[in-house]
Amino acid sequence: MDTEKDKMIIAHRGESFIAPENTLASVQLAWNKGVKAVEVDVRLTLDNQVILMHDKTTKRTGDINNVIAKSTLDELRKVDIGVYKGKKWRGEQIPKLSEVLKTVPVNGKLIIEIKSDSEIIGPLVDVIKSSGLAAHQIEIISFNIKILAKVKKLLPQNKVLWLLDLDYYLPAWMLYVNTQKIIRKLQQHKLDGVDVWAGKKINALFVEQVKRCKLLVYTWTTNDIKSARNLLAMQVDAITSDKAGWLIDQL
Fold this sequence. Notes:
By secondary structure, the protein is of the alpha/beta class. It has one domain (4-250): Phosphatidylinositol (PI) phosphodiesterase (TIM Barrel). Helices cover 31% and strands 18% of the residues. It contains ten helices and nine strands. The chain has helices at residues 4-8, 24-32, 73-77, 97-101, 121-129, 145-154, 179-188, 204-212, 225-233, 244-250; strands spanning 9-12, 37-44, 50-52, 109-114, 138-142, 160-164, 193-197, 216-220, 238-241. The chain has an eight-stranded parallel beta barrel, surrounded by five helices. The radius of gyration is 18 Å and the shape is globular. The mean pLDDT is 95.
């Protein structure tokens, strides 16, 4: 039986601790482990195909260094993005978003992080609308609030959340987080919540203030039980993890 905690754990780029990130293998492994929500990153190719990839190039995860925006889908399909995780994953290709959407189970949800600029919006919306999935099964996240505002107008029924790094880059003591300003921006653009770095700046007060306005609070990226339990105690709506299947078992 599904528990509420099962539904709150999001697989970061699929089961990326085990399998190569942003691949059909990592996504399918998450579903097989009983994870109910999977997060992936998308970029636009030279020939306007929406594909899964976090970085601007394939250098980190591939055996060939291609720039995504300057490469066609056919060129990118020749890159092996599995072998960096070990021989077991050799031959894994960069998937199209449409291929990944076909794997989403009836009780599953795909969370799509936009990594490209605004030119991806049209192709992305077309892929989502043609997927046949219900609006509650696809959510959109991005650090770019202007992109999110445009997406929300085109997909008003889908949840759209603003990614915030808070103290990811800076020591917490150097950073002042204006929660009310964040809330006003969310309301201005009719967004559904935030997806924030699970660092020192997120606390029970931040979560309470955001949720009081009927907005969601997701977090990224947590790979240990103590941190996950602390976040659950703060009443966050979801926790993103590289070890989603393992984290669900432990909780």
